């Protein structure tokens, strides 16, 4: 059996809500089948008050072995480094303190969501609660724990970044860890099995992207990179390869990718739904694309845009169907 | 005669609520003499928004809460729309309502199965005739009803995949409507998803026709409903006397849910023995028992200045909203009472049974509303209206989250957010005392309850009957 403890730090609880949307199998069956025993989860376990405190004490004092600690939400360090912006109720101690104590006992530590990984939205706009991620402060290595910190397994914090996280990312990470297999991590500590993809991969607007046939307003079905702030060509995630909630993704829902798997996505220095430009070209270019080539190809492909694609890009549905081809 | 025994009992971590909650009870002679409800997490969302492009509220505010995310989206979109003088298109409003209703239905289901019912499977009730069935159905993480509810909820949330991209945290809801115009395929798929959810509700949760449950008009009629997991709950409620446990003051408030072209699906107003119109100008947030600096103010004039010293007499980060100086209970029961549903009106002023039955009633009615909205989808209609943000102005967005009335008050100056105040449902229900010493609705509901052991099981039922969302409460 693999033991798992889940703590909710300063966040919205949305990563737990998202995890409950896991499919085939559902999350409760998935954990059971993987031999994962939930010692305590704040939203799901029956134990409350003194019963819950006893579980946390047992783990913190090493009386009960902990294999996986999942932390959801950023760690609020304020005010003045006390952590008192989030007291773990009934214990008289800050959640920051509890995370420090319990992480020291855990074989693996998993940051579930961009808040726990990097600070995320909890650290937005001046960071009122002085929140950080477990092992990152935004894009800087070193958060609540130092850059070189390692859990008992020798691994750094596993950052399942995303706002929220896809239930599949969490499910697969937990199943792998429970079976003794460690997911390879990228430069920001994210499992590469989803972070080696770009949100652009599989985006249904790809034909519009090819011609830079752009939507100018939300609800138009053209590419949202040029005008509407979409950074799916730079954001990591397999969001358009594995669907969300059955068939969805942000771009499928008609709104831009805001790069929620990345550190500091919460403060982009421009409106989320607006693309910053210099001389008419987006400031952020597709990952690994040389600027001169991008500009040349974009100009060329824009000039070559077929009428069908140009008109559809500005509509809220397909108004011009593809030309039918006669078999030869 | 022995001296009255006085003691203080602090309940926490109080789990199976969304977010962080601490309840401190002064116990005298085995009963709650005074309750203090504390929200121990401050993140400062209202402060994060200051100085930003107003449209950023649609990204930031849903992330106040991962369980009421759509409600926060809808409130932010309504506040922006109010400031812009823009209304969504007819079908845009209908799709916003459908997305929002799906979240509320999913939340009601999660509350009943995951948060509320597991307490009745505790060994404390081992002698009860209903205990074995409850253990089988509702044991935390394992119960068969829990598992089928999680599955049904997951499939219902395919509505989000089809219309809103993902859940939680969508950008699909905008001041002018929705970003995705559904076509015929989505219409067919949505209807199939909703039929499947109805099959679950009728086959498992209610064990009967939704229309029959929604037609119940009296408490006697309600208690005669014996089928499904709803029937099991009603059997427990009858046995444990849950109607009189944790009674409310009988004052309810609703902003009106799912605002369509011709008004809200569930009416707006307040209830104090009878329906009255709601005047939101009479809302004031009192700060005397919150760790906040400043004076009592209407949210247009309100500020969020945390008192980092966390000084007495305050005991919570939660402000204390009052309407005309009085507390009001919000939530599904409030909505259904204000809407004038006869069963809800009969339950008004009740306790645990009233709140939970109000939620079940609303779940049945909401399914019928969702089916109608899906059936009336018009592929080809406009789903988004366009407008311009003002350089200066203000707007209020008032919606109904699963847990009750949610308000956003936005001020724009020089094209940026100058002020943003949020009053969430649980801010009303779990407010601390105000300047006059008047306790919040939960604090009042807990007074007088018998505390039988360190777990204070009756207190657990009452607290969870409100379905608190603590991450929304302080934000």
Sequence-ordered SSE layout with sheet pairings:
The complex is a heterodimer of chains A (328) and B (475).
Chain A: E1 2-8, H1 14-19, H2 27-33, E2 36-40, H3 49-60, E3 66-72, E4 75-76, E5 87-88, E6 93-94, H4 95-103, E7 106-112, H5 114-118, E8 131-132, E9 136-137, E10 140-141, E11 158-160, H6 167-178, H7 192-195, H8 206-210, E12 277-278, E13 281-282, H9 291-303, H10 307-313
Parallel strand pairs in A: 1-2, 1-3, 3-7, 7-11
Antiparallel strand pairs in A: 4-8, 5-6, 9-10, 12-13
Chain B: E1 6-11, E2 22-28, E3 31-38, H1 45-49, H2 57-60, H3 69-84, H4 90-116, H5 131-138, H6 144-156, H7 158-163, E4 173-174, E5 177-178, H8 184-205, H9 210-214, H10 219-223, H11 228-240, E6 251-254, E7 257-260, E8 263-266, E9 269-272, E10 275-276, E11 283-286, E12 292-293, E13 305-306, E14 320-323, H12 332-338, H13 342-347, H14 352-375, E15 393-401, E16 404-413, E17 416-423, H15 425-429, H16 441-446, H17 457-465, H18 470-474
Helix pairs in contact in B: 3-4, 4-6, 4-14, 6-8, 8-11, 8-14, 12-14
Q: Any key phrases for this structure?
A:
heterodimer; A: 328 residues; alpha/beta; Rossmann fold; Cytochrome-c3 Hydrogenase, Chain A, domain 2; 2 domains; five-stranded parallel sheet; two-stranded antiparallel ribbon; 13 strands; 24% helix; 14% strand; elongated; B: 475 residues; alpha+beta; Cytochrome-c3 Hydrogenase, chain B; three-stranded antiparallel sheet; 17 strands; 39% helix
- Strand/helix succession of chain A: EHHEHEEEEHEHEEEEHHHEEHH
Helix/strand/pairing class of chain A, anyone? Answer: alpha/beta
Question: What is the CATH superfamily label of the largest domain in chain A?
Answer: NADH:ubiquinone oxidoreductase-like, 20kDa subunit
Total DSSP E strands of chain A: 13
Instruction: Choose one word for the global shape of chain B.
Output: globular
Report helical residue fraction of chain A.
10-25%
For the report, how would you describe the main beta sheet of chain A?
Answer: 5 strands, parallel
Say which CATH homologous superfamily of chain B is assigned: Cytochrome-c3 Hydrogenase, chain B
- Domain count of chain B: 1
Oligomeric assembly: heterodimer
- Structural category of chain B is alpha+beta
CATH topology of the largest domain in chain A: Rossmann fold
Number of domains of chain A: 2
Give the overall silhouette of chain A. elongated
How would you write the strand order of the largest sheet of chain A? 2-1-3-7-11
If helices are DSSP runs of H or I spanning 4 or more residues, what is the number of helices of chain A?
Answer: 10
Biggest beta sheet summary of chain B: 3 strands, antiparallel
Greatest interface (CB-CB under 8 A), with counts per chain: A-B, 82 and 91 residues
Named at the architecture level, the CATH assignment of chain B is: Orthogonal Bundle
CATH architecture of the largest domain in chain A: 3-Layer(aba) Sandwich
